[in-house]
């Protein structure tokens, strides 16, 4: 693969412009407790990247194709890397309001299926390398993360336990049942609609799955979706402090008077206790393998190793 220089030129160079310093009054930022908080999160990511880089022999250079999760708002010079199962539907709605030039005013007026139509938002991979360079260097870049195993269980519950997600049942469920269920019924082999969490985790840690290609975005690691060791994000928001962090972002780009992040009061959301219950039926070996798979996300975003885990 031909070496693509744009990531080194615009992200990793020490002299690249920091959008927070450039766009906002440094004195105000220094006085802001939130700014200090977000700086600590950025430092955590950088420290984890340094440790990973020192221990890894892999030297990977990104290509424009790696940037398909980075949504661009030209009017507000904003880049958002979306991570499925981390309020990305509402964030896409907000980005549609920001980029719509008056077409939308309330994010919740936008149907959820419309928020996921690819043509409704422009992503960074659609630009030339020179344009990518410019935007990575000058725009405010942010992402939102979530406790990795809560996000994993949330993805499982959404994609494998709800009847309307038949496309996931057909695409992934049938393959999982065929590989990991002994004496599977013909109906299960045909529809893949009743995948157990243990079967799903067997699929994730199976080397054959890695050979099949990248994981689906709903259970792919944040490290692989957003490339935080290559792209310097100005803000790392967390699902656990979603509204506070989201409205802080909107305040930084100067739209907090007219636009607020949708309130989130979903009673069916995946909790830590629920995640612990799902993991209780997973073997110690598979728990260890799963932790290794998502370890960088735990380290980069300062999530503690779950107390319910039994690790080898």
Task: Walk me through what this model shows.
With 312 residues, the protein is of the alpha/beta class. The chain is built from 16 helices and five strands. The protein has a five-stranded mixed sheet with strand order 3-1-2-4-5, sandwiched between helices. Strand 1 (70-73) and strand 2 form a beta hairpin. Helix 8 packs across helix 15.
Name the features.
16 helices; 5-stranded mixed beta sheet; globular; alpha/beta
Task: Detail the poorly predicted runs.
Answer: 1-5, 7-27
Structural class category = alpha/beta
> Could you tell me the radius of gyration in angstroms?
20 Å
Average pLDDT figure: 88
Give the total of beta strands.
Answer: 5
Share of helix among residues?
Answer: 40-55%
Shape verdict: globular
Tally of separate helices: 16
Give the biggest beta sheet: 5 strands, mixed
- Helices and strands, in order, run as HHHHEEHHEHEHHHHHHEHHH
Strand content is 5-15%
Distance between the termini: 38 Å
User: What spatial order of strands do you see in the largest sheet?
Assistant: 3-1-2-4-5
Mind sketching the topology for me?
Layout: H1 6-12, H2 19-23, H3 26-31, H4 33-55, E1 70-73, E2 78-81, H5 88-99, H6 112-115, E3 122-123, H7 129-138, E4 140-145, H8 148-160, H9 166-180, H10 186-191, H11 197-205, H12 207-212, H13 222-226, E5 235-238, H14 242-252, H15 272-279, H16 284-300
Parallel strand pairs: 2-4, 4-5
Antiparallel strand pairs: 1-2, 1-3
Helix pairs in contact: 1-7, 8-15, 9-11, 11-16
